[in-house]
Design goal:
This protein has 869 residues and is α+β, with helices and mostly antiparallel strands. It folds into six domains: 193 residues, tricorn interacting facor f3 domain (Immunoglobulin-like, Sandwich); 133 residues, Neutral Protease, domain 2, CATH 1.10.390.10; 88 residues, Immunoglobulin-like; 104 residues, no CATH class; 88 residues; 134 residues, Peptidase M1, alanyl aminopeptidase, C-terminal domain (Zincin-like fold, Alpha Horseshoe), CATH 1.25.50.10. The protein is built from 27 helices and 31 strands. The strands form eight sheets. It has an eight-stranded mixed beta sheet, with no helix packed on it. Strand 25 and strand 26 form a beta hairpin. Helix 9 runs antiparallel to helix 10 and helix 24 runs parallel beside helix 26. The structure holds tryptophan (TRP) and zinc ion. The site of tryptophan has 13 residues, from strand 20 and helix 2.
């Protein structure tokens, strides 16, 4: 079960056989499913050595195997745990493999499995090998013809990739459908769905006049939650034409929403499968954040049709080729739909709060990893989001138009191919003329570069000195200098721009730039828009920060200046507490800056809310070599209550001014209004301000939308008392039949700041409304607790760690992918102070003694291998 076979990028060998045509035949029965594959193959001219063929297969029952219609004898092949090898084959032949599988009892959510009453597939990365023996690698691309036969009343809807070319009845009560996908594709993009499904339909006319049939299937009764997803799809299709000149290439685009899904969604060619959490959005059940998530995931999967499907990855080490580029395209799209500044701030937050910790922990790996045990463990924030930031730097250095032209060049040059990140970089160089030799290091090295910026003003000349250093990561020491764009602008003391914005290209360990003709020392705004995924430290006074916070023309930099002010105060206080000294109070400048902000708020309301929000515990923790959760939590709570106390009257006014007055619309103005309302309630709740409870209950009861309702509920979250219990019970009663809404109910309780939070989680694990086999429920309750209730999870008595480890063991037996993801939360023990470090390590050791899946084993082993420091 847990053989640790490590795969290396350097070991890549081309496939021995190419497969031109695949015919699949699914015979779906209640007790088992028969799958027959006919593969038209020929020897790969690029492959030398013996004409042996490796087929991957896991958990399969082999029924038969034949070469050109002749049954293979036992001497011609050997079966093992992970597949079978055919020793010798003709130059060209048709191979027929038949297997029997059991989707009814497949809880791993990969291969063919049941979600509710729907049968569906998930093949990325290597789920196809759980369906039938096949070379399960993305560089084997074939055209597929798929026949599905099943019970007509249980499975009236049958779907696969491409066009439906035939349907009809077979035996009494059964029917079949045949699909042909005209585009050659790797098997990870194969999909099949069978079920009794509700449907909403629409259509889209492409720029060149192609009519595309748009269909979105879901379990009956949920159709009215799917209109936002459909509208988002059309927006994404129009955006990709307008921005990249890319038109959809099939006659239909089908999406199926399923409730049990390990990730957000999957871009199977012409037949996307989505987690319901990334499809459903109706104003009474989904928040503004949910609406944005649905819009962005729908766009992401659509954009994969070119960046991922038309041009795919040669091997899984190249995953960021499709994910980094597609996330970057999704980010561009999101910025164009919403508030540009606040959308970008959200992206920056994810990098700093989630990616930087990964890059500084035991699981640090390059955007293009060099080795892995289990590929599923490498669908990481580094491959996705840092990968997107790396692309963004190329776009920044090339300029937007040149970058888009370069992407078009890349897609044209490699259309229909499975390629590498190196191929992508070469295409970028060819088209833009940039020299990316040194830039390639971003793909090869793990770790977050630390930049230091010093400035010196003498006479009328400003000297800026930038230096960079990247800390060691587990298997990568003494890193060379990176090539990166640092956007800067200079401001005078009235807040007027005196120079820039301009981009400094840093590519040495240390570099200097001079700016002449500056009579007064300017204020330096640096790393504007977060122009590179680095940590920047800059000697700057609080007064200078306050000035940028009030006047910087870049919203990201305004927010960043506010964050820097908060961070400095929080770090000073947390350090003092950690050293057993008296708490350190925040400087007056900080409160003056908040007052200025409240007096002159930005037009973008969401930006105001962002600027009033304190850095998360994760961000504060990143400032420390060793994380002291208790000290950080206390410092953050203290500053929060201090701000709330000083400005309570202002927050009351903000809440009044931003309370719901118009019917709900998901747009920039509406979402901004609701952000400020929630933020004001949050501050008032910190001091249990008079009237706050009534206000929160009122918002909960009267809102016409889930965003304001959740604002009320969240404000009551940490305030024990009758209001909280009544509102929670009301919520549960009202939404008992909406599992995704009940996830909010689970998460809210899991994140309640109480000493006995772990007991609450244990109680909810046993609740009927919880379902251990559904990843959304597990993420809401266990993920909510371990990520969103930092102090309770890291309690000194290790009760949080024990709880998580217990559940990882249980989960690992059914869903290794999800269990491994949760185990990752225990891995960075070495970053913490005692007793947390010992408590986390102890649970890793406990896990290590169990028999574990390869997925979870890889995470536990790498966590334990981390230096004890
Ligand atoms: N390719 C999917 C995406 O768009 C990721 C994905 C979906 C996935 N389901 C998965 C990856 C299951 C691994 C396993 O990002
Ligand atoms: Zn993706």
């Amino acid at each position: 079960m847990s053989q640790t076979l490590r795969k290396y990028r350097a070991d890549y060998q081309p496939p021995t056989y190419l497969i031109d045509e695949v015919a699949l035949d699914f015979d779906i029965r209640d007790d088992r499913t028969r799958v027959r594959g006919d593969y038209r193959m020929r020897r790969n001219p690029a492959s030398h050595g013996r004409p042996a063929l490796r087929l991957d297969g896991r958990g399969l029952t082999l029924v038969s195997i034949a070469v050109d219609g002749r049954m293979a004898s036992d001497e011609e092949y050997a079966v093992d745990d992970t597949g079978l090898t055919l020793f010798e084959l003709p130059q060209a032949c048709t191979l027929t493999v038949e297997t029997s599988i059991d989707p009814e009892h497949n809880l791993s959510l990969e291969g063919l499995y049941r979600s509710g009453d729907i049968l569906c597939t998930q093949c990325e990365a290597t789920g196809f090998s759980r369906i039938v023996y096949f070379p399960d690698r993305p560089d084997v691309m074939a055209r597929y013809r798929t026949r599905i036969e099943a019970d007509a009343s249980r499975y009236p809807v049958l779907l696969s990739n491409g066009n439906c070319v035939e349907t009809g009845p077979t035996d009494p009560g059964r029917h079949y459908a045949v699909f042909v996908d005209p585009f050659a594709k790797p098997c990870y993009l194969f999909a099949l769905v069978a079920g009794d499904l509700g449907l909403i339909r629409d259509h889209y006319t492409t720029g060149s006049g192609r009519e595309v049939d748009l269909r979105l299937y879901t379990e009956h009764g949920n159709e009215d939650q799917c209109h936002h997803a459909m509208a988002s799809l059309k927006q994404a299709m129009a955006w990709d034409e307008a921005t990249y000149g890319l038109e959809y290439d099939l006659d239909s685009y089908v999406t199926v929403a399923v409730s049990s899904f390990n990730m957000g969604a999957m871009e199977n060619k012409g037949l996307n499968v989505f987690n319901t959490a990334c499809v459903f959005a109706r104003q009474d059940t989904a928040t503004d954040a949910d609406f944005a998530l649905v819009r962005d995931v729908v766009a992401h999967e659509y954009f994969h049709n070119y960046t991922g499907n038309r041009v795919t990855c040669r091997d899984w080490f190249q995953l960021s080729l499709k994910e980094g580029l597609t996330v970057y395209r999704e980010h561009q799209f999101a910025v164009d739909q919403g508030s540009p500044g606040v959308t970008r701030i959200g992206q920056v937050r994810t990098i700093r709060e989630v990616q930087f910790p990964e890059d500084g922990g035991p699981r640090a790996h390059p955007v293009r990893p060099d080795s892995y045990v289990e590929m599923d463990n490498f669908y990481t924030i580094t491959v996705y989001e840092k990968g997107a930031e790396v692309i963004r730097m190329i776009a920044r250095m090339a300029g937007d138009d040149a970058f888009i032209a370069a992407v078009r060049h890349y897609l044209a040059k490699h259309d229909g191919q499975a390629v590498t990140i190196e191929d992508f970089v070469v295409a970028m160089e060819e088209s833009t003329g940039l020299d990316l030799e040194q830039f390639r290091r971003w793909y090869a090295h793990a770790g977050t570069p630390h930049l230091r910026l010093d400035s010196d003003h003498v006479a009328d000349t400003l000297t800026l000195r930038l230096s960079q250093h990247t800390p060691d990561t587990p298997d990568d020491r003494d890193k060379p200098a990176f090539d990166l764009p640092v956007e800067i602008a200079l401001f005078d003391h009235r807040g007027e721009v005196v120079r820039g914005p301009e981009v400094l290209r840093l590519n040495q360990a240390e570099q200097e730039w001079q700016f002449e003709g500056l009579h007064e020392a300017p204020i330096v705004s640096a790393l504007r828009g977060f122009s590179a995924p680095v940590q920047l430290s800059q000697a700057q006074s609080d007064t200078e920060r306050a000035l940028l916070m009030a006047h910087d023309s870049d919203p990201v930099s305004r927010w960043d200046a506010a964050q820097a002010l908060y961070l400095e105060a929080l770090v000073a206080d947390a350090s003092a507490r950690s050293a057993g000294q008296d708490a350190a109070s925040a400087p007056a400048v900080l409160f003056e800056a908040i007052e200025t902000l409240l007096d002159n708020p930005p037009d973008d309301r969401a930006l105001l809310a962002e600027m009033l929000t304190l850095p998360s515990e994760a961000r504060i923790g990143e400032q420390f070599e060793r994380i002291d959760v208790a000290a950080i939590g206390a410092a953050r709570r203290e500053l929060g209550t201090d701000i709330a106390r000083r400005f309570s009257a202002r927050f009351e006014r903000l809440a009044d001014e931003h309370a719901a007055c118009e019917p709900y619309v998901f747009d920039v103005a509406g979402a901004g209004r609701r952000r400020v309302f929630a933020c004001a309630l949050d501050y008032l709740a910190r001091i249990d301000a008079p009237g706050l409870r009534e206000r929160a209950v009122d918002a909960f009861e009267r809102a016409d939308n889930m965003t304001d309702r959740m604002a009320g509920l969240s404000a009551l979250r940490d305030l024990p008392g009758a209001e909280r219990e009544r509102v929670l019970a009301d919520f549960a009663r009202r939404w008992a039949d909406e599992p995704l809404v009940m996830d909010k109910w689970l998460r809210l309780q899991a994140t309640t700041r109480r000493d006995d939070a772990a007991d609450t989680v244990r109680r909810l694990l046993a609740d009927d409304r919880f379902d251990f086999t559904n990843p959304n429920r597990v993420r809401a309750l266990l993920g909510g607790f371990a990520r969103g209730n930092v102090e309770a999870f890291h309690r000194g008595d290790a009760s949080g760690y024990r709880l998580l480890a217990d559940e990882i063991v249980r989960l690992d037996a059914i869903n290794p992918q999800l269990a491994a993801a949760l185990a990752g939360l225990l891995a960075p023990w070495a970053r913490y102070v005692a007793p947390q470090r010992d408590g986390m390590r102890e649970q890793l050791n406990r896990l290590s003694e169990r028999s574990l899946s390869a997925n979870t084993r890889e995470i536990v082993d790498s966590g334990l291998a981390a230096a004890a420091g």
